[in-house]
From TrEMBL:
It comes from Salvia splendens. InterPro entries: ARM-like, ARM-type_fold, CND1/NCAPD3, Cnd1_C. GO terms for biological process: cell division; meiotic chromosome condensation; mitotic chromosome condensation. This is Condensin complex subunit 1 C-terminal domain-containing protein. PANTHER family: CONDENSIN, CONDENSIN-2 COMPLEX SUBUNIT D3. The lineage of its organism: Eukaryota, Viridiplantae, Streptophyta, Embryophyta, Tracheophyta. GO terms for cellular component: condensed chromosome, centromeric region; condensin complex; nucleus. Residues 120-155, 1100-1121 are annotated as: Disordered. One of its GO terms (molecular function) is histone binding. The keyword Cell membrane does not apply. Residues 131-140 have a biased composition (Basic residues). Residues 893-1068 form the Condensin complex subunit 1 C-terminal domain.
Length: 1319
């Protein structure tokens, strides 16, 4: 070693550049000393340096220079190793050798070595970096690969690759040095060490293999643990520094780096915190710090929440409660913090012990978190509302397993917060799609939680959502309602599912139609198929046990018969049948259900005349049998046809025309008869469906039977159609070919037509002859008739009604049939009582048939309409007569039927009906709700199919349906304008908006001409004129609906059009300011321009849209595009105000001032609202009118002052209503401005104007309190001042409660604390 020491000392004396040979010699000396623990050689080295006047500082500087030289990585690593070995050597003067500069150089070497693994000679594990493969050479040296960097240094071209083992050895020695050198005196070194150790894992994760990375991370953890010891300084400060450096690692997405950071905090620091309160406190504050630094994007935020919760779980219960309180405060902070709070609350509730134990302490912090989450469901920010609802759904699912938590959740959902049902109902119709979808998710989970105790309001809310404009939300609603129906087949759920889901078979989206079919097949048809076994014995059937109604298929079958559900079920069965998805077992099971019902009835020895099959069974069988006819047994049909036919007399419908009275027994009989007739109709339809498979002889017998029954004209009209259709089908079965079938059909059609004509002529003769005989008698005879005559007339009328209905049905079945002989008779009926020359040849009653037989009159119009549909020439003659009757008829039934016929005429004879469209649209204002709804639906369909165009006044007349008295019509109108027209005619609202303002106010100024009296009377019913609050609110609702359909660019254009065509017209004199309608138009224009619907909030809109896109998984590009669009819109709005609106407002204001018009106030309010976002630019915008500028600024300031005073007054009133006000502390609370300010919303507490108003209110309260004390004689600070006392009229000072009433009343009337300019 003496030779090595000599070379080292000689090299130091030569002051030559540092070389690897020098460092190797020094490393050899130090390694030998450390291994042998022999201090002789190192002591000789120190003595040799001292003898040659070389200090240890020169040695340290030389090594530090080598570390900083950057000649090569191997040299730097070797120098660092030598420096650490020198510090660890026995009897080493550590305080002399250790310098901050050298230590910082050491840390730089470590960071560089980790960052550049390609320069390492990896003998233990290969590096994953590709850079070394490109720049290095591969040498064959055994079975191990060496990756080297062949850059050469200036002093001899030594290779620069370093051994990875040297780096690990360097880290180990650094850890040992930490035990010798206390860094409390070198805070910069400690900070640099912490940052370096935290950066190393992030640097090495992409370029080191997994084994080396784990070893490197473990070494960093040990060094950081060493740095947290008390000898290196205050543990709390060091822990805070470590946690701050680990924050970027912890907030990363799932990776090895994140695992390292979390592992060190959760395992090492929490363990060390058990022995150090400073470290424990720092770790407890770490989750709060991470919340403040959490990212805003959805995925990184979720990862951050997961990391935070890992740390929180490791804390003790006290710190967990403290963190929960902090989260509660965050839930009332800024938007980004509220989003974080609602994301972390469900994890807290589910993960932490005690958070979900609601049943132990009612006011537990878990319950507080749950209530805070419910409150955020009504947050002002859409992204917060959506996240809160989604997370609340997760909480419901997670906590429903515990009985105590389940009970508390049920209570909270029913009555908690602001009323959970009410919140869900509001959120399910939220303007933001993400919120509606989240609300539906929560409702579906809540329904599963409630079980059999389902809330009707929640079910109806889901049902309404099935008609949402967005396809995705409709699918979520269908899934939620179907899941509830699948689990709980109660009557309530069944009814809501039937009414909400089945109608979606008519949806425009194909996928929803397919989903509807699939669910109906699974939840209805499959259940019906399983209702009976093969022998026809229904296990759950018991007609006497109503409790079994919800357990089997009976509830489903009964709901199928609902009038609103039945047409959709027909469409579903038809679609499934065409796709061959209807099963034979369904038809077989339905037959078994009917057989079981009959067998149960016979078993109970009840009369078969009163038996009816389960409701809906025959209907569903009639629909299914059309596609699986071979599954229906002919013997089954024949038996039940005979059964129902034999019981006809007992169950025949008795009309009030015949009976003349109706008691309770009659009502029950009528209800039973209606059900019986419905079953007969569905049975006939079933027979028609399977007729092609019937034997010829039974088919012929049935046809003869049907014809015989039709010729009797004694059936209910509902049965007539079924018999005619079944008879036509049987004729086709009996015939050998189509020609023979048509001949057979025509033969019995003519036969029925002839007999129906005889019945009608007979009845008309009966009511005509008596009137002619009595017309010459004076005085006319009384109306007393024999009972037999009255009964005969009643029977004749009933036959005439069925006969005329049969004629209409025959026309539908056989349009080619000639009805020329019947037209005059029908014409006589519909024109009876009028002087029509066409009916002079026929016996005409002196009294109108409309008065004698209203039912016959109604059916006559129906029959004539059907005949006109088959005969175009006849339709051309009679359509004007239909329109005339539509206008003058006082029967709602006739008007409704004519509207239906006119809709059919519009499809068949479009050109003929088009000119009468204005007459038809008058029915939109019909006094009968059914007529209005029918007209709206039919015209809406015609408009969708382009048989009618949206031109003229048609669109404007449809607008009044938005404010109809009927809720159903308003809902239909909202759907038409909000969904169908928005997609079919997106510019319609924009093009007709200004005209709608004039029309609704009954103002003709925009047309430039006055309407005739008839036209004015016709249009008057389509106006909402007047300044009454109700009329104005209806018009504003219509305007708001139209504005919601417009795109931002159309809103800008509409703003300009309203200014140019209304306000500019008024300032130019084209719109009269003295006319009441003109004033209403201008006032509506001001309200529209100042309304929120026409204003485009560019900045807020862009951010919210970006937030929603981000929640739905959108990228940042969409958000940036929205921001650019928002800025462009803002500039366009400002430009439109300056160039178009402001000049018109200035000119109009001058005109209104000259006429002293009351519209000035509305104009100023409108301007104030328009310019409130441009307060700093008012001077530039109103440069043309300085007076208006001053007035507007004054009005805005006054408005804000009055609003602040009103807010303070409300807070003061809230304080006085509170229970605390009535306590002894009430007076002190009243005088304290801070107490009043705490009652204000959070966003108003920092408002200076509001604070000033609060202070004024507190001062007023103080003054009142002092005056009250003075008047009661109490000692006050004013007692030492000579204050004049109140005296009575007799000169006696009043004391206590003996004040005269006049004095008290005068004090009560005094106004206080309001200046004159504020009144």
């Amino acid at each position: 070693m003496d030779e090595v020491i000599s070379r080292i000392v000689a090299y130091l004396e030569a002051h030559s550049p540092i070389s690897q040979s020098f460092l190797r010699d020094l490393d050899t000396l130090l390694d030998f000393t450390l291994k042998t623990n022999d201090t002789i050689d190192i002591d000789n080295f120190y003595n040799e340096l001292s003898s040659r006047n070389r200090s240890l500082t020169s040695l340290t500087n030389a090594i530090s220079t080598a570390m900083d030289s950057g000649i090569s990585s191997s040299t730097s690593v070797l120098a660092s190793k030598v420096y650490l070995s020198l510090l660890l050597s026995p009897n080493s003067p550590v305080f002399t050798l250790f310098t901050p500069m050298a230590f910082l150089s050491l840390l730089r070497v470590i960071r560089f070595a980790v960052k550049k693994p390609s320069s390492a000679r990896n003998e233990g594990s290969a590096s994953r970096s590709l850079g070394g493969k490109k720049r290095g050479k591969r040498k064959n040296g055994g079975n191990q690969a060496r990756v080297e960097n062949r850059d050469f240094a200036e002093n001899g071209g030594e290779e620069t690759g370093y051994d990875v083992k040297d780096l690990f050895l360097l880290m180990e020695k650094l850890e040992m040095v930490m035990g010798l050198v206390h860094l409390d005196r070198f805070p910069d070194c400690l900070k640099a060490l912490v940052q370096t150790m935290c950066e190393i894992p992030m640097t090495a994760v992409d370029s080191w293999d997994s084994g080396s990375f784990r070893r490197l991370s473990e070494q960093c953890s040990r060094i950081l643990s060493e740095a947290l010891k008390a000898e290196h300084g205050d543990s709390g400060d060091t822990a805070a520094e470590v946690l701050k450096a680990l924050r970027p690692l912890i907030l990363l997405s799932k990776s090895q780096v994140r695992s390292f950071g979390l592992g060190f905090v959760v395992n090492r620091m929490v363990e060390m915190g058990e022995h150090s309160d400073e470290i424990k406190k720092a770790v407890a504050n770490m989750p709060k710090f991470l919340l403040q630094r959490a990212p805003e994007k959805a995925e990184p935020r979720a990862s951050a929440v997961e990391s935070i919760m890992e740390i929180v779980k490791a804390l003790d219960s006290g710190h967990q409660v403290e963190f929960a309180d902090y989260v509660l405060k965050m839930s009332r902070g800024k938007t980004q913090f509220r989003v974080l709070a609602v994301d972390i609350i469900p994890v807290l509730l589910v993960s932490l012990k005690g958070a979900s134990e609601f049943d132990v302490v009612e006011d537990s912090w878990g319950l507080k978190l749950l209530k805070a989450l419910i409150q955020r469901c009504s947050d002002s920010a859409a992204v917060v509302r959506a996240r809160a609802l989604t997370n609340l759904a997760q909480v419901v699912v997670s906590l429903s397993g515990n009985d105590g938590s389940r009970a508390m959740l049920k209570e909270v959902i029913r009555h908690g917060g602001e009323g959970m049902s009410k919140i869900l109902k509001l959120r399910s119709v939220d303007e933001k799609a993400a919120v509606r979808k989240a609300a539906l998710l929560l409702i579906s989970k809540s329904l599963s939680l409630l079980g059999d105790e389902l809330d009707e309001e929640l079910l109806k809310t889901v049902g309404i959502a099935c008609s949402d404009p967005l396809v995705s939300i409709r699918k979520v609603a269908i899934s939620a309602l179907s899941e509830a129906f699948r689990k709980y087949s109660t009557r309530l759920v069944t009814k809501e599912w039937m009414h909400s889901v089945t109608r979606l078979i008519g949806d425009n989206e194909t996928s929803i139609q397919e989903e509807c079919e699939s669910l109906f097949s699974e939840l209805v048809l499959d259940r019906v198929s399983r209702a009976c076994d093969k022998k026809g014995k229904n296990v759950s059937f018991n007609v006497e046990a109503e409790s079994l109604y919800t357990e089997g298929a009976l509830g489903l079958l009964k709901e199928l018969c609902d009038g609103e559900v039945l047409p959709w079920v027909k469409k579903i069965c038809s679609s499934l049948g065409k796709k061959k998805k209807l099963q034979r077992q369904t038809a077989i099971s339905l037959q078994n259900i009917i057989r079981a019902s009959e067998a149960q009835w016979v078993h109970n020895s009840m009369p078969m005349g009163n038996w009816i099959a389960p409701q809906g069974a025959w209907f569903l069988l009639s629909e299914v049998s059309a596609f699986v006819p071979k599954a229906v047994d002919w013997e089954f049909l024949h038996h039940h046809w005979q059964l129902l036919d034999n019981n006809k007399a007992a169950n025949e419908f008795q009309s009030p025309i015949r009976s003349g009275f109706m008691d309770e027994e009659m009502v029950d009989m009528e209800s039973h008869s209606i059900t019986w007739m419905g079953d007969r109709v569905f049975l006939l339809q079933t027979i028609s469906n399977v007729s092609m498979d019937l034997p010829p002889e039974p088919a012929a017998d049935l046809a003869q039977n049907f014809l015989k029954r039709l010729e009797g004209f004694n059936m209910h009209p509902t049965e007539v159609d079924a018999h005619i259709k079944a008879l036509r089908t049987l004729c086709r079965r009996k015939a050998l070919n189509q020609e023979e079938a048509d001949t057979l059909v025509m033969r019995w059609v003519d036969q029925l037509k002839h007999k129906a004509s005889l019945v009608l002529e007979s009845y008309m003769s009966q009511i005509s002859i008596p009137n002619k005989e009595s017309s010459f008698l004076t005085p006319p005879p009384t109306s007393v008739r024999r009972k037999g005559t009255k009964t005969a007339e009643s029977k004749s009328l009933a036959q005439a009604i069925v006969a005329i209905y049969t004629i209409g049905s025959l026309v539908i079945v056989c349009p080619s049939a000639s009805l020329k002989d019947l037209v005059p008779t029908i014409h006589t009926i519909i024109t009876s009582g009028s002087s029509d020359p066409k009916s002079s040849k026929l016996p005409t009653p002196a009294v109108s048939v409309k008065q004698l037989a209203p039912s016959l009159y109604v059916h006559a119009w129906l029959a004539m309409g059907k005949i006109c549909l088959a005969d175009g020439k006849l339709a051309k003659r009679y359509i004007p007569l239909f329109v005339q009757e539509l206008e003058k008829s006082d029967s709602a039934t006739v008007r409704n039927n004519i509207v239906v016929m006119m809709a059919d005429f519009c499809v068949r004879y479009t050109a003929m009906v088009d000119c009468y469209m204005s007459k038809i649209t008058k029915c939109l204002r019909d006094p009968c709700e059914v007529v209005r709804r029918q007209t709206f639906i039919l015209l809406g369909r015609l408009l969708q199919r382009d048989y009618v165009k949206w031109r003229g006044l048609l669109f404007l007349r449809f607008l009044l349906c938005l404010v109809d008295d009927s809720d159903k019509i308003r809902q239909l109108a909202d759907f038409l304008f909000g969904n169908i027209l928005k997609a079919k005619a997106p510019l319609l609202a924009y093009n007709s908006f200004v005209e709608s303002i004039f029309v609704l106010n009954d103002c003709n100024a925009h047309t430039g001409r006055s309407n005739s009296n008839s036209s004015r009377n016709e249009n008057h019913i389509f106006t909402i004129r007047g300044n009454a609050e109700h009329s104005r609110s209806q018009r504003m609702h219509i305007y708001a609906t139209l504005l919601k359909q417009m795109a931002p660019e159309h809103l800008l254009a509409t703003f300009a059009k309203v200014c140019a065509e209304i306000l500019a017209a008024a300032s130019d004199g084209m719109l009269s300011l003295e006319d009441t309608t003109g004033q209403s138009v201008i006032q509506d224009a001001f309200l529209v321009l100042s309304g929120k619907e026409i204003r485009i909030q560019a900045s807020h809109g862009a951010s919210s849209e970006a937030a929603e896109m981000e929640e739905e998984g959108g990228d940042g590009g969409g958000a940036s595009t929205s921001a650019l669009k928002g800025r462009a819109i803002t500039q366009a709005v400002r430009k439109g105000l300056i160039q178009n609106a402001i000049p018109i407002f200035i000119e109009l204001k001058r005109l209104l001032e000259s006429k002293n018009s009351p519209l000035i106030g509305h104009l100023m309010d409108c301007l104030r609202i328009l310019l409130k976002d441009y307060k700093n630019e008012i001077d530039d915008m109103l440069v043309a009118d300085r007076q208006l500028q001053k007035e507007l600024i004054y009005d805005m300031q006054r408005y804000e002052s009055m609003k602040a005073k009103s807010t303070a007054a409300d807070a003061f009133a809230t304080l006085r209503r509170s229970e605390a006000y009535h306590s002894p502390k009430g007076v002190a609370m009243e005088r304290n401005p801070n107490t009043i300010r705490s009652k204000l919303p959070r966003n108003l507490q920092s408002n200076s104007k509001v604070a000033s108003a609060v202070a004024d209110a507190a001062a007023a309260a103080t003054a009142r309190s002092v005056l009250r004390e003075v008047n009661t004689g109490a000692s006050t600070p004013l007692g030492s001042i000579n204050v004049p006392k109140l005296k009575s009229r007799l000169g006696v000072a009043s004391h206590g409660g003996e004040k005269p009433a006049e004095v008290i009343e005068s004090l009560r009337r005094r106004q206080c604390f309001d200046s004159d300019d504020e009144k």
